[in-house]
Amino acid sequence: MTAVATEPAAPAVDDALLLQRVGAGDRDALGELYERHAGWLAIRLHRRCGDSELVDTALQDTFLAVWKQADRYQPTGEVGAWMWTIAIRRLIDQLRRRPPPSPVADLVPLVDVIVHEIPLALGHTELGAAFAALDPDLQAVMAATALDGLTNNEAADLLGIPSGTVKSRLSRARQILQEHLR
Amino acid sequence: MTIQDFDAAMARAAGRPRFLAGPEASFEAETMAPRLAANFAAIEAEIDAPAPGRLARLLMRLGVGEATVPLVTATPALRRSFVISVVVAVFFALSAATNNTAADGADRIVVFLTLAPIIPLAGVALAFGPRVDPTHEVALAAPIDGFRLFLIRAVTVVGASTVVLLIASMLVPAGGSHRVAWLLPALAAVSMTMALSTRFDPRMAAGVVAVAWVTLVTISVSATDTASTFGPTMQVLSMFVAAAGAVGFARQRRRLDMVSDR
Predict the structure, then answer these.
(1) At A30, which helix (H) or strand (E)?
(2) Which of A77, A87, B210, B226 is the most buried (most CB within 10 A)?
(3) What is the pLDDT of residues B41-96, one digit of tens each?
(4) Is residue A2 in a domain?
(5) A99 found inside a domain
(6) ipTM > 0.85 (yes/no)
(7) B258 versus B158: which is more confidently predicted?
């Protein structure tokens, strides 16, 4: 896709409408939706899993789910947010089926999230500083639960740690944050 | 600022997931472009793939592996024509067995008991082999274990026909426990057929076993009667034959992977 930069952008078809067309079986609409969203979805998935094969499968599963369940989208939030909830769960499905073989792959996830996404989410505020002061393990748990909206079990699978550990780290992280922010 | 502000900031950010990918995302996406294109091709291929049939979906729900399902559903003997002929044959045998509801009704059950083991046998004969299986050459060329394929096919066919036969058995009015006296002989016959199939064409093997079975029953029934023919002796004998057939089949399994024009 090449956009002519000098011309004012034509009134873009909005994502929700595109999704409606996908629901009606419009393949071109799916292609357009992929064009718009696959890039950032893949990048964000990659920050959570170092294995490109798993990320590719999760990405494919995501758009297959969008193709089949486009009508289940509730027009309350951003289409991207809906797609992300599908994508992150497809990734966790993949991780449950075949966990990354090397311990190195375990270390990659969420470090990038902490470096890239959390600062964007919190900005240069007191919150950002308080979060940065946390232990990386605690940051990772916060990122998985608060930012990605995962349950403790899902976060456990994403991080490759027991869900009890997720729970205890989460409460510790919140306690420390609370003290910082007081 | 409190922890609630933190939660709110996180929730706000989560609602704009694209923004979280960051300003460098478009650059990164460009380097990923070939992979993204390949992924979309895979998505389109998956969408265009024919939807699994009703049987395939049922099998998958029962926990049969995704790779095994096509092997099962491609079983030649599962074609509608064969299934229909099984049902028709069973109910003809059934009507022959139940027509004489009078004094010798119990004796007439012999028709049903003799025919019943032949039906799974016919299924096995038509489940595997160069003549009947349109995917036979494909299977030989593919890294599929012929032994496993034959087992899958045999279990499928025997399972399907046994269900039909068991239902039919329940419909036989007389005979008591004799109604299911065909089960072990059927197992023995199938087992023997499989063992012989490692050396001969499965249809030939099944034919030989079927003829031997009918001859045996005919001689025995004319010498004694139905009840003693299908009595404990035959059941025990069937078990031994079944075991021997299974051992023979397992031992000769390698031969199933060999190309031959039998």
Answers:
(1) helix A27-46
(2) A87
(3) 999 988 888 777 777 777 777 777 776 777 777 776 666 667 777 777 777 777 76
(4) no
(5) yes
(6) no
(7) B158
